[in-house]
């Protein structure tokens, strides 16, 4: 054995046995097992033993990319998101890219469409000035692809051009994929199927946990690829848990379905160890008949000394952003981006047209001159109760006002209006290292509001040097009086009172704190309907959204909390109207298998976030649920309030 390997943890030594035998491997480890620590050890040792080899490491988020880069800083290591890695390796093959998009667009099974129902000629993209581009949004007619299309196109290229696999293998002798369970099946197919068509050699390593595959578009597990044969993926299991106290480990083991049984770490330096002993921890199952989460939080505050004002120590986990919007105070903004009634009607129209074309029905005649209202009247869309959707919409004065803003505009213009909650609440930080690096999905308006609020926060928290570096007014500071003016200007923004978002945007511009730039001006022109809605909302509501997305509130979604940990975790079991989850079936171990597995996994992720205390709140459970909860949590840990 190489001398340096003797200091590596046992699982990493086992991984290097796979590497020595040129076998692809998978490190499977439950929550809190230290998978990232193992990944870093593997990367460092690979670089030591192969000083000239290039190593690629892919992970799911930009935050994870940054974490790994900080732990291993080496010129031969390339860390990126999976999307960025794929784009970086196919973007130069423009001829093949254009051909692939056209071929896929002409394949009805491919989920890529340029011009619905019409064949695309081979020379369609010949006049693209910038070639095919990868951006946050999709405009296939202009050669712009987005996240989902990138995966489909990359898979097609690697499948049909073995030379591409050879090029990537030559470039990277080692490719490691973190959080593999969240990776698309088509991405795994590239590395484990299409790579085989190339005679070049390289090695693929996966790191992750099948039990934490909480996204439906992820592969979930590598069961079909696992085995001891030379061309299979060899699994290395990591069974320790360094994060959770004993009671939470025992609960988590009841939830696992993949055969991994975690044990507390025996490492004295592990977070769940104190004076050579594993922390006991606390788990509670609280239920009530009124669904009053506030009463639960009051109980935990008074009886268990929880501090819900300390967002770093204590978190309340809900299933969706929508369930949190009221509690955190950004309901109006959420409704604008996620449930606009007029844009909902427009989407229904587009779906009706699309389905009619697919079924080969007679085409609905819509001319370039038709207004939105004309098209709505032509289609006469009805709900399941056979009521006209337009009439129902107009019964509400606010909705009628929104409809009137768009009714006379050309339908060709209205159909391009696209609203998405991701543009509002996406919490991925913007990555400014190059145009092709994809960061936050927030739109330009929300990014501008973030910039204003960031200035306010820097000033309020006394970080004056940072504030001076980022405020646009810095270019005007030449003497002491300028600093006094800046102080007065920012303080006028600190106390926003009842000012609307538009008023604050204009104030920040006029006072030189945050100038209205070309990006925002173009956004307002291009997104007039959305801007007209958002501008009337009080800026104070945006400030609450800012605090939520920056982790300064006790609230989080169960999906968003993955990869994080807190001393105290309150899990609110509310389906939120989603059919994808069913918490009653979780406790009764019944129901549709796909829904049950999805619910088991999200619950597992939630429970394993807790480093000290875990509380699960269930509104109005059946007797059978309480029986199961008693088995899981223990009779003395069941509390009715």
Quickly describe the structure.
Helices cover 44% and strands 12% of the residues. With 641 residues, the chain is α/β, with parallel strands linked by helices. The strands form five sheets. Strands 3-2-6-7-1-8 form a six-stranded parallel sheet. Strands 15-14-16-17-13-18 form a six-stranded parallel sheet, sandwiched between helices.
Describe the structure.
36% of the residues are buried. The chain contains 28 helices and 18 strands. Residues 428-439 have low confidence and may be disordered. The protein is an alpha/beta fold.
The largest sheet is: 6 strands, parallel
Kindly report the spatial arrangement of strands forming the biggest sheet.
3-2-6-7-1-8
Would you tell me the overall average pLDDT?
Answer: 88
Portion of residues in beta strands equals 5-15%
In terms of structural class, how would the helical and strand content be classed? Answer: alpha/beta
State the shape: globular
Provide a count of the helices: 28
């Amino acid at each position: 054995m190489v001398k340096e390997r003797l200091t590596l943890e046992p699982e990493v030594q086992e991984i290097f046995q796979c590497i020595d035998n040129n076998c692809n491997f998978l490190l499977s480890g439950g929550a809190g097992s230290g998978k990232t620590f193992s990944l870093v050890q593997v990367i460092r040792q690979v670089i030591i033993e192969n000083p000239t080899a290039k190593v690629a490491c892919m992970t799911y988020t930009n935050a994870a990319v940054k974490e790994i880069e900080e732990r291993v800083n080496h010129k031969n290591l390339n860390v990126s998101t999976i999307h960025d890695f794929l784009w970086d390796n196919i973007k130069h093959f423009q001829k093949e890219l254009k051909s692939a998009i056209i071929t896929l667009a002409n394949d009805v099974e491919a989920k890529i469409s340029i011009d619905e129902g019409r064949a695309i000629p081979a020379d369609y993209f010949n006049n693209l000035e910038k070639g095919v581009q990868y951006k946050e949004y999709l405009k296939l007619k202009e050669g712009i692809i987005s996240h989902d299309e990138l995966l489909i196109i990359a898979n097609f290229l690697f499948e049909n051009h073995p030379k591409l696999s050879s090029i990537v293998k030559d470039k990277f002798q080692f490719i490691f994929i973190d959080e593999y369970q969240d990776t698309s099946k088509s991405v795994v197919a590239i590395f484990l199927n299409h790579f085989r068509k190339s005679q070049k050699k390289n090695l693929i390593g996966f790191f992750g946990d099948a039990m934490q595959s909480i996204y439906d578009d992820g592969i979930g597990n590598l069961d079909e690829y696992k085995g001891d044969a030379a061309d299979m993926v060899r699994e290395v299991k990591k069974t320790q848990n360094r994060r959770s106290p004993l009671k939470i480990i025992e609960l988590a083991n009841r939830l696992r379905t993949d055969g991994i049984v975690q044990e507390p770490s025996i490492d004295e330096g592990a977070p769940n160890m104190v004076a050579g002993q594993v922390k006991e921890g606390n788990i509670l199952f609280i239920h009530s008949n009124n669904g009053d989460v506030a009463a639960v939080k009051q109980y935990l505050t008074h009886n268990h000394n929880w501090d819900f004002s300390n967002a770093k120590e204590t978190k309340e986990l809900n299933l969706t952003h929508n369930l949190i919007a009221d509690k955190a105070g950004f309901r109006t903004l959420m409704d604008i981006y996620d449930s606009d009634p007029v844009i909902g009607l427009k989407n229904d129209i587009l779906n009706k047209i699309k389905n009619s074309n697919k079924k080969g029905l007679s085409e609905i005649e819509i001319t370039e001159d038709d207004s939105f209202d004309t098209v709505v009247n032509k289609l006469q869309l009805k709900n399941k109760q056979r009521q006209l959707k337009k009439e129902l919409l107009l019964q509400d004065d606010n909705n009628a006002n929104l409809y009137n803003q768009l009714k006379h505009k050309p339908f060709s213009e209205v159909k391009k209006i696209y609203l998405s909650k991701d543009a509002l609440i996406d919490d991925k930080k913007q990555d400014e290292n190059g145009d092709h690096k994809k960061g936050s999905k927030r739109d330009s308006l929300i990014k501008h509001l973030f910039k204003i609020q960031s200035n306010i926060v820097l000033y309020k928290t006394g970080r004056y040097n940072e504030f001076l570096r980022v405020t646009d007014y810095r270019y005007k500071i030449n003497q002491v009086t300028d600093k006094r003016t800046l102080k007065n200007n920012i303080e006028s923004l600190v106390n926003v009172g009842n000012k609307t978002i538009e008023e604050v945007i204009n104030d920040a511009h006029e006072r030189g704190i945050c100038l209205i730039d070309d990006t925002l001006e173009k956004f307002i022109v291009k997104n007039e309907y959305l801007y007209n809605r958002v501008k009337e909302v009080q800026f104070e509501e945006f400030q609450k959204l800012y605090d939520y997305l920056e982790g300064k509130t006790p609230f989080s979604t169960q999906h968003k909390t993955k990869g994080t940990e807190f001393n105290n975790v309150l899990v609110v079991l509310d389906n939120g109207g989603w059919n994808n989850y069913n918490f009653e079936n979780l406790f009764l171990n019944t129901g549709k298998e796909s829904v049950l597995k999805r619910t088991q996994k999200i619950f597992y992720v939630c429970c394993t976030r807790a480093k000290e205390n875990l509380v699960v709140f269930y509104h109005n459970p059946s007797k059978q649920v309480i029986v199961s909860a008693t088995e899981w949590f223990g009779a003395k840990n069941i509390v009715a309030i």
